[in-house]
Amino acid sequence: RATLGILRILIEKELIKVNSEAIDVNTLIHFCIENARTHNLVIEDDLADKVNNFISERLLHMFVDQGIDINCYRAVIHSTIGTHFCPLTRYELCRVVQDFSKTPQCVSLASSVKRTVNILQKNQHSDSLDVREDLLQEKAEIELYRKIQSKYEAYLIFDGEYEAYLSSLSELDFYVTQFFNDVMVISDDVDLKNNRISILLKLRELFSIVADISYLAPEK
After folding, report:
1. Predicted TM-score of the model (pTM)
2. What is the 3-state secondary structure (H, E, C) of 162-207?
């Protein structure tokens, strides 16, 4: 009850910062643990993870009770932004992602991102995001790569306008579909294969900034 009470206060009072510092539950947990150690209290090594998981579970139940779909919550907590555990930010993101998940563009995009994830999981690769432009041969891969680059730049401009950013990603749907239709990712040419894998890695990262869109793919 105490945990739910604190979470409700943080969300309903729209608390994002305390003394100009952004609220991050993980930081607060570690601060409390270190403070306890200064009083010679014995703290388990995995206590921070246990407390974090406990609070995350309480937040999940609270969101589900308010109509948030569990897959939207998962999409948020597995995003780049979601790693910063601010309850209000997570709540706002879940609302935005849930609205986006109901659009026709999201269904197609999420399926493409899921396909991207499956390809990356099934093929050994480095985590390099460096794409060699001199190895781009097919029209579809050239166009997709250029669009990905433009969306990275767009994210810097949106500055917290998550709804507008997710909507802008819908423009990639045509280019992602075209890429999978026209480009042989797993090429016999190792350099081409690795370069195309790098494109998919950049795509994967792009679609995980605000929400991991692969979690929004329809269940088969």
Report:
1. 0.78
2. HHHHHHHHHHHHHHHHHHHHHCCCCCCCHHHHHHHHHHHHHHHHHC
